[in-house]
Every structure is written in C-alpha cells, then in structure tokens.
C-alpha cells in the first residue's frame, strides 16, 4: 500500500455477529485524513439472566468518538429500534447531523418530546430516491420493503466505487404500507458496478420466499370477523402495515379499534401524520374499552415480546386500569418472539389461557411474517446487483457463516467475513480485513451508561447465584476486637445440608478466625478482611455446596 493512498473502508461497530445494535462506518481517504459516515445507530435488548438489572445495550462508539471531527453524518436506513434506538443516548458524544426519511425523523422527534432530558438532535430529512453529498461521499436512499414504512438501502458512492448497504429488506409486492423492493432500481445499481454489497443475513437459513403482508392482513381479517367476542392483537408497535391491516379488518366487520400503549400511540400519531393510515377512522382511547359492546371492539396492544410493563403483560396479570379480557375473548400474537424472549411470552400466553382466553400465534395461523429475506429473495438480490464483494451483516455467527457460503454459491468473487471491530479495506486491491479496532457494548444501568468492564454486572451475576454474606468487625488500635461482629446473610438458604442454621455457620467461622489471629495481625485491617472472607466462604461451601459473595468491613476504633 502506498503511504497516503486513498482507501475506502468499512468498519462495523455493532450488528455483525449479533442481532441488534446496528452501527456501521464507511471511511474514505488516506489513513491520516480519512472522512467517515455512519449508517444507523441502534440498540439491543439485554437478557435479565445474563445482564441482571440491565434493559438496553448500545454499541461502543469510542473509535469514532475520538475522530468525531472527521465524522460527517449519521444516515438512518429505517426507524426500528435496533437501527435508531441509540441515537438519544450516544448522539451527544458525536454531535453530527442525522439524516433520515420523514417517518424515521418524525418518530425520533416524537420520542424525544416524551423523554425528559433527551437531547435535541440535528435531524435532517431525506427524500427516498434522492442523493445527499457530504464530503467525499454521495449517498442515495433506495426504497425497500420491510416491516416498517420508509425502509431504505443506501447506495454509497465515492471516487473508489459504489457500495450498497441493504439495511433490512425483503421482497414483498403487496406490503400494505410502505414501499416495494424494486428490481429495476437494484439492477440499475448492478449495471453501474457494485464494489461491495453489505447485506442482511437474518433469514439466510430459511428456504424459499417469505409470505406477503397482504396474506397476513387476509388472515387477520378472517380471525377478527370470526370471533364472537372481544379481540386483542399484539404486534410490534412499529409495524404500521400490521396496524393498518387490523384497522381495515375492524372496519370491515363493524368493530372499533382501541390503541393501548405509549409506543403504539407514538407510532400511530406519526403514521397518521405521514399518511399511512389515511381513510381509517380515529382509534379510540383505552378508557373507552369498558363502554364498547364486547363484539364490537378490537384492541391493538404493545407487549408482543413479553415486556413485563407493557400493556399485554398487565392485561394478562389483570392489573391494567382500562383493559380486561374474559373467557371466550381472543388474543392474536401477530409477531414472533425474539430469541431470548420466549419464556416471557410463554408466561403471558399461559396466564391468558388459564383465564379461558383463546390465544392464536403464528404456530397455527399466518398472523406474522418476517421483514427479512429468505434464500430465494436473496438469490434475486444477488442477480440484480452482481457485486464484486459480499459482506454479510445483521446476524449472529451462524447467519453470517451461512450467508458467506451462500454468496460464494451465487458466484461472488470475494466474500469478507467481518465482525464488530473488523476494519475492511474495500479499495484499492482485494477487499480484506486489514485491522481490528475497539468495539464492544455499553449498558444502560438506570440513568447511567457503563461499559463491559464495569464490575457491576459480574458482581450481580454472582449475587444472583450464591447470595451475599456481610460481616462488620470493630477493632481498636491495640488489635482488640470490640464486641461481637455484626453478621447478615442475603440470598442464602436458612439451613445447610444437615439442618444447621447458616447464620450460625458464618458466626462460628468469623469467631474462630478472629480468635486464631494475633493482635499484631488484627491491627492489619486489610489482612483481617481477606482472612475472614476466605474463612467464611470456605465454611459456607462445606455445609451448602456454594461459595457466596462476602463483604467484610473492619471498623477501626
């Protein structure tokens, strides 16, 4: 490589090797003077068992934070949380323009107004099909079908060539709301010559074509019309096509729609503003539910992923202030559980079934389709685009590996297996990984962002597994223990395997340890804490079979 030579590089910081937290950088120029654009800035959901106390995860953007004077903008492909959900948290670290279509822009603005203290982001509207020039980049939004309106691939042009970043997409000729994926548009890009296709891998392991939203709409219409009593439909709040399908089905059989949940309300407001619910009557508020005839109502509820504070979970627990269901009512899960959420969703379903509510899921009816392409759809994309290089993204290791084999089978000359932090040189020369940079996760812990190395998470995991023993000891300056140590156990069973109280086991271990130490050693507070810690953990392990976390504090008097 010639020193100072202009290069085009790709650097994912999230969403490659995982589902969610999508954030990708494209850089152009010599290494010391490279300019950058970012595509998407999304969040992920943390599992409570793996990340106790943590709800949300964000990509670690420290690499580009250090170079933010060279970052020219963030370009949003679409308004799903795994593509825009980190904007509010991370934008203050970057403070660059954020480009998005009207729907995504309005959704970001609406959410900011509902979140106290959220930053006023520099949002700039982009028209689908239009081109935006920033520095050495020209970016064109190319409409695609997906499970939210105004989804786009982004064609990125530089002096080094054209890269197509597909974002999330599928082929759906009848999407109910939103655009179709145009063969002509992508064929034209292929004719221009595509240096690299950076493509969605989510459903590459599934054969065939995914069904259309129109087919789901037809099923929902039948299921709502056939129900003798109340119907509740839960889906992703962002799925405007599904919201429209439910509303059209309700109108067709003389029912009114009641929208329930803040996220649902936000999306409905923006969808109406952008014209995606034109021709449909206004939806009713949740407090009207009790006054509407049982056979003349449909509820649209948040909570399809089992979120404990969402509307459906509260309904299933019978603690929602407005919405209630009874035996003979019907609940339709117009969604599929994201991996990791199955247990929470199953718990809600069981609660509803126990109450005599009929539950319908995609296991038995076509009430949900994915927004991502199956293999035959991907075959079409590769036929249209004919890229020189394929880079699988948006998937876990299994999806990326399978996509790499698939791309080679389509005749792609170069396939680059990237992961978060892989710096890929696209041009000049053969595309390949040339370096690895820092990439990781940030966790939203209450109102604080912490990184992966923060001790809070492993300590919480340990507390979940083995509880905590707390010991406080007062020792004077002569090395004399004053009074009895204060001992408490939290999260341990009351008794050991032979029935002995565990608190007594701890007290005995502390007493034996202190009585066996000389005054000279008792003057060393740190040494006392370590010795007592070790003795307590060993003693508890002998009678319980687990070593708890232990907090020993010596108070010097």
Automatic annotation (TrEMBL):
Entry keyword set: Exonuclease, Hydrolase, Metal-binding, Nuclease, RNA-binding, Zinc
CDD domains (UniProt xref): RNaseJ_MBL-fold
InterPro entries: Metallo-B-lactamas, RibonucZ/Hydroxyglut_hydro, RMMBL, RNase_J_2, RNase_J_b_CASP, RNase_J_C
Gene Ontology MF terms: exonuclease activity; metal ion binding; RNA binding
Residue runs in coiled coils: none
Cross-referenced Gene3D superfamilies: 3.10.20.580, Metallo-hydrolase/oxidoreductase, Ribonuclease Z/Hydroxyacylglutathione hydrolase-like
Pfam families cross-referenced by the UniProt entry: Lactamase_B (PF00753), RMMBL (PF07521), RNase_J_b_CASP (PF22505), RNase_J_C (PF17770)
Domain Metallo-beta-lactamase: residue ranges: 20-220
PANTHER family: RIBONUCLEASE J
Record-given protein name: Ribonuclease J
Organism, scientific name: Methylobacterium pseudosasicola
């Amino acid at each position: 490589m010639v020193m100072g030579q202009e290069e085009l590089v790709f650097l994912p910081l999230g969403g490659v090797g995982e589902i969610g937290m999508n954030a990708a950088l494209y850089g152009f120029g010599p290494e010391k003077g490279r300019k950058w654009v970012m595509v998407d800035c999304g969040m992920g959901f943390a599992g409570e068992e793996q990340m106790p106390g943590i709800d949300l995860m964000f990509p670690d953007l420290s690499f580009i934070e250090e170079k933010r004077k060279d970052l020219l903008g963030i370009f949003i492909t679409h308004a799903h949380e795994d593509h825009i959900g980190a904007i509010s948290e991370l934008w203050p670290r970057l403070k660059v323009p954020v480009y998005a279509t009207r729907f995504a822009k309005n959704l970001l603005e609406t959410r900011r107004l509902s979140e106290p203290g959220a930053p006023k982001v520099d949002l700039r509207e982009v028209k689908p099909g239009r081109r935006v020039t920033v520095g050495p980049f020209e970016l064109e939004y190319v409409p695609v079908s997906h499970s939210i309106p105004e989804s786009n691939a982004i064609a990125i042009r530089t002096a080094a060539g054209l890269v197509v970043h597909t974002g999330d997409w599928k082929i759906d000729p009848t999407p109910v709301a939103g655009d179709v994926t145009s063969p002509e548009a992508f064929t034209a890009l292929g004719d221009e010559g595509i240096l690299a296709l950076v493509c969605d891998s989510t459903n590459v392991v599934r054969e065939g074509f995914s069904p259309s939203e129109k087919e789901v709409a037809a099923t929902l219409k039948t299921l709502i019309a056939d129900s003798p009593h109340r119907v509740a439909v839960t889906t992703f709040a962002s799925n405007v096509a599904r919201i429209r399908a439910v509303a059209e089905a309700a109108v067709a059989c003389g029912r009114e729609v009641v929208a329930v949940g803040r996220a649902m309300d936000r999306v409905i407001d923006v969808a109406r503003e952008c014209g995606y619910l034109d021709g449909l009557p206004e939806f009713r508020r949740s407090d009207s539910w009790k006054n509407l005839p049982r056979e003349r109502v449909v509820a649209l509820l948040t909570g399809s992923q089992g979120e404990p504070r969402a509307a459906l979970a509260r309904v299933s627990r019978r603690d929602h202030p407005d919405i209630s269901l009874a035996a003979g009512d019907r609940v339709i899960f117009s969604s599929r559980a994201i991996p990791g959420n199955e247990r929470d969703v199953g718990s809600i379903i069981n609660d509803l079934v126990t109450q005599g509510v009929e539950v319908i899921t995609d296991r038995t009816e076509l009430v949900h389709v994915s927004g991502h392409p199956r293999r035959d759809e991907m075959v079409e994309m590769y036929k249209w685009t004919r890229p020189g290089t394929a880079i699988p993204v948006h998937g876990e290791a299994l999806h990326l590996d399978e996509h790499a084999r698939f791309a080679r089978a389509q005749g792609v000359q170069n396939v680059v297996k990237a992961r978060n932090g892989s710096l890929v040189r696209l041009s000049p020369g053969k595309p390949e990984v040339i370096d690895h940079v820092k990439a990781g996760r940030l966790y939203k812990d209450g109102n604080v962002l912490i990184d992966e190395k923060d001790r809070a998470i492993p300590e919480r995991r340990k507390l979940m597994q083995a509880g905590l023993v707390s010991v406080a000891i007062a020792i004077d300056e002569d090395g004399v223990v004053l009074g009895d140590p204060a001992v408490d156990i939290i999260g341990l069973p009351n008794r050991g395997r032979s029935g002995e109280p565990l608190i007594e086991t701890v007290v005995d271990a502390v007493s034996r340890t202190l009585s066996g130490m000389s005054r000279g050693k008792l003057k060393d507070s740190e040494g006392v804490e370590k010795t007592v810690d070790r003795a307590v953990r060993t003693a508890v392990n002998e009678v319980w079979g687990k070593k708890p976390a232990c907090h020993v504090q010596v108070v010097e008097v």
